Structure formats: structure tokens, C-alpha cells
What we know:
This protein is mainly β. It contains one helix and nine strands, in the order ββββββαβββ.
Amino acid sequence: MAITGEEKIMSCVYKVSTEHKKSIIHTEIFRKTIGDEKYEARIEQTWRWGYAIISDVEKDSIDLENPDGLLVSDYIIEDQDLDDGVALWFYYSDNVTDEMKKEFESVWEEDGYSGVEEKDWSMWDTELVFIGPLEVELLEETEDEEDDEETDAPKGTWPF
């Protein structure tokens, strides 16, 4: 059985930014475990302006109108610049006590990442979302071709 690969794969690098101000939301997710109990804290910051350079994106796959938001962190982010933070919100899982919330926010305000890490909160994930109409600039386009040579499957492998 011969296997051929003639499909061309288009991989692009784009610079993505929002057309409207206050349309970028960056969320940092922290987790903490005490005994068998797991806790979560989210810091959500809204930015007035910014951009992200993302790579390994399929050509023309980004919706310019973007009504549901583009989860930029689903892509490889090569560079980003977020400018002029305008809002900062804290969200917690239901089991986080008021005392834990006050401590987290106070430590965050005083010492940032190092402070919350000293209190045993670990950075678990981040999300970067651009909402609304987007400006998308193609920076680089790569055409990767699969090997056009025919290859036979090794004997004794599926299918026989």
C-alpha cells in the first residue's frame, strides 16, 4: 500500500489587536490545595490596548468580527504587549472563605506573584481573550509540503 502526501499546509504568523479599546481580558488562574480541598483564585484584568503575535495559525482561520472572543492563548504566543490596564477583578471558587479572599488580595497588592506563591497558591493557567472586531496583520506565511515520495508500509504492520 502506497502512502502519498500531496497536501500543502499553510502555517501563518499574525499580529492580532482589537479595534475597540477595553477589549482585551487577561486572566491568571491560581490553585491551592489544603488537605483534600482544592481552591481556585482568578485575577482578571482588562486592558485598554494591546497586541499579540501568534504563530502556527491556519491561514485565514481567524474571524475578524470575533463576536464570541478569540482565545489568543490557544495559539503559540511569540510576543505580546498589553497597555494601560483599566480594571482588575478577583474571582474565587465557591469554597474560598472571605478570610482567604482578603489575604489573597492583600498579598497580591503588596507582593504580586511572589506573595501569593509564598501563601502556597500556584499559577495554574492563563487565558488571553481579545473581544470584538480584530485587526489582523499577516506577518509570515509558510507553505509546508508533506513528503511527495511514495513510501510502502513496513512489512508486518497494519494493514497486512
